[in-house]
């Protein structure tokens, strides 16, 4: 699969469905941190700069391509009935890879359920993510092994978890930082407001990374806020910045600076990555019912992978052999993912009762016995 062919497939437009949309606010270019334009031109920013080697640039490109291929494969597996659900990151690769590669090993990550690119950066096996959406594990990884917390389905709650963890980091005297990911829809949740309050008051070393993909399922951003999301931080007493979420270099530079600020004791910071969800909210969603094809086409021209490829090619930082080898690597990753998912064993039916209470519980014991008897009844009927 070439990079050009991994671009988002244009959704089918329903002729029978009338869709209306209020005017979508666009990012103020004077306030948007950008280091790589949609045309692949390298530009400078007075407050954020970055100097990467050709090898490092190729590494970022590889991360985005492989993450997109994995994501596409997961969507296909769900359509084939192998997964119960999947939340695609299509279009958000730069925001996730850029911020993920800004982290140190000792930093701690609190994701939502869409941070597949960040999980890749933290060396979480992609098949563990798929096991959760297949329903055969409860996450599949030890959060402390990679400093990457389990996926959080409850909208916005992980920001409070991150704040509390960051407060603990500060009390321990460590110089690491914490990052919490959430979306534009989650910014309306009370948990996020409380996290902002506590992090500011306690000067917690936490970075709030909001991926503003402009759609909280079918609700556009203007239904969430009257001001740009990054400006909300001012009301809580800490800085906010808006970055081009389709620019992997800018996302890396801004997140790296925010994390270093947190580590040095200067407190929290809000990063709003202004991007676009090119796919559906999840595989149970139909975005053609609420947004126009023209809007998506506009953002396809800002594709984060294509702009970096343009830059790599123009500067002769990567040749055709590199792209061909990467295509082969992405094919191998897709095959490994397919084979792994289809060979996953069914979970132990009784595992749900394990690890609930450290010393056991009478009610859990009773429920376990009832469920065991229920399962046994099927075997009896079979005879």
UniProtKB/TrEMBL annotation:
Q: Which InterPro entries match?
A: Alpha-ketoacid_DH_E1_comp (IPR050771), DH_E1 (IPR001017), PdhA/BkdA (IPR017596), THDP-binding (IPR029061)
Region annotation (Disordered) ranges: 1-29
Give me the stretches of Basic residues compositional bias.
9-22
The Dehydrogenase E1 component domain, residue ranges = 62-343
Q: Name one Pfam family in it.
A: E1_dh
Co-factor(s): thiamine diphosphate
**Keyword check for Lipid biosynthesis:** no
The answer on whether this UniProt entry bears the keyword Phosphoprotein reads no
GO terms (molecular function) for this protein are: magnesium ion binding; oxidoreductase activity, acting on the aldehyde or oxo group of donors, disulfide as acceptor
Source organism's superkingdom?
Answer: Bacteria
Gene3D superfamilies attached to this UniProt entry = 3.40.50.970
GO aspect biological process, one term: branched-chain amino acid catabolic process
Q: Which SUPFAM superfamilies match?
A: Thiamin diphosphate-binding fold (THDP-binding)
Protein keywords:
Oxidoreductase, Pyruvate, Thiamine pyrophosphate
The UniProt entry, under PANTHER family, shows: 2-OXOISOVALERATE DEHYDROGENASE SUBUNIT ALPHA, MITOCHONDRIAL
Q: What is this protein called?
A: Pyruvate dehydrogenase (Acetyl-transferring) E1 component subunit alpha
């Amino acid at each position: 699969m070439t990079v050009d062919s991994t671009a988002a497939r244009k959704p089918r437009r329903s002729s029978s469905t009338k869709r209306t949309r209020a005017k979508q606010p666009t990012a103020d270019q004077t306030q948007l941190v950008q280091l790589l334009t949609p045309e692949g031109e390298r530009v400078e920013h007075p407050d954020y700069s970055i100097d990467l080697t050709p090898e490092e640039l190729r590494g970022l490109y590889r991360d985005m391509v492989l993450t997109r291929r994995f994501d596409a494969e997961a969507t296909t597996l769900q359509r084939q009935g192998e997964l119960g659900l999947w939340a695609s990151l299509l279009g958000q690769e730069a925001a996730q890879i850029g911020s993920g590669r800004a982290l140190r090993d000792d930093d701690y990550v609190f994701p939502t359920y869409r941070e597949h690119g960040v999980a890749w950066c933290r060396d979480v096996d992609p098949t563990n993510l798929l096991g959760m959406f297949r329903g055969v594990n409860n996450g599949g990884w030890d959060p402390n092994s990679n400093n990457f917390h389990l996926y959080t389905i409850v909208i916005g709650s992980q920001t409070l978890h991150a704040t509390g963890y960051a407060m603990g980091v500060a009390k321990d005297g460590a110089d690491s930082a914490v990052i919490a990911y959430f979306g534009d829809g989650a910014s309306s949740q009370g948990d996020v407001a409380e996290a902002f309050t506590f992090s500011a008051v306690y000067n917690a070393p936490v970075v709030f990374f909001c991926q503003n993909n402009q759609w909280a399922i079918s609700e556009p951003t203007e239904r969430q806020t009257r001001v740009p999301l990054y400006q909300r931080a001012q009301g809580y007493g800490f800085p906010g910045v808006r970055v081009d979420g389709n620019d992997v270099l800018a996302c890396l530079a801004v997140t790296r600076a925010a994390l270093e600020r947190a580590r040095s004791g200067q407190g929290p910071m809000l990063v709003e990555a202004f991007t676009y969800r090119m796919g559906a909210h999840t595989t149970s969603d139909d975005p053609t019912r609420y947004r126009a094809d023209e809007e998506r086409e506009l953002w396809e021209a800002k594709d984060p992978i294509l702009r970096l490829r343009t830059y790599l090619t123009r500067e002769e930082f990567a040749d055709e052999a590199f792209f061909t080898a990467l295509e082969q690597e992405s094919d191998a990753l897709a095959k490994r993912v397919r084979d792994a998912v289809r060979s996953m064993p069914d979970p132990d039916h009784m595992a749900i009762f394990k690890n609930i209470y450290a010393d056991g519980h009478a009610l859990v014991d009773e429920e376990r016995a009832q469920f065991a008897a229920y399962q046994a009844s099927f075997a009896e009927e079979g005879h």
